[in-house]
Design a protein that fits this description.
The protein has 91 residues and is mainly beta. The chain has one helix at residues 52-62, and strands at residues 5-7, 10-19, 23-33, 41-46. A 4-stranded antiparallel beta sheet has the order 1-2-3-4. The radius of gyration is 17 Å and the shape is flat. The relative contact order is 0.16.
Length: 91
């Protein structure tokens, strides 16, 4: 798969992600428009079994989920230069 393609309300292609803990993830995707709610899209990502991206997803899936009451400070740190969204104060 090269460039994303569209067919009616469906788009497919490959997205490249850089995760601070597992590195590059090359994931195939399919994005489908949700007819029940205009403007919403459901996107499914998958990796080729046995590929490094699949191994990276398996590793991420094996990590324990944060429990209620834990803070983000207890999660692994982001790689230098990575950004996170910060909430802004309402005026």
């Amino acid at each position: 798969m090269g460039r994303p393609t569209t067919s009616g309300c469906t788009a497919t292609g490959i997205k490249h992600f850089r995760h601070p803990a597992v590195g590059t993830l090359d994931l195939m995707f399919e994005a489908m428009a949700l007819e029940a709610d205009e403007g919403l899209t459901l996107t499914a990502y998958t990796a080729e079994p046995g590929a490094p991206s699949h191994d990276g997803l398996q590793l991420l899936a094996s990590w324990p989920q944060p429990t209620r009451g834990k803070t983000t400070r207890e999660r692994p740190a982001l790689a230098s230069g990575a950004r996170t969204a910060r909430p802004t104060a309402a005026a």
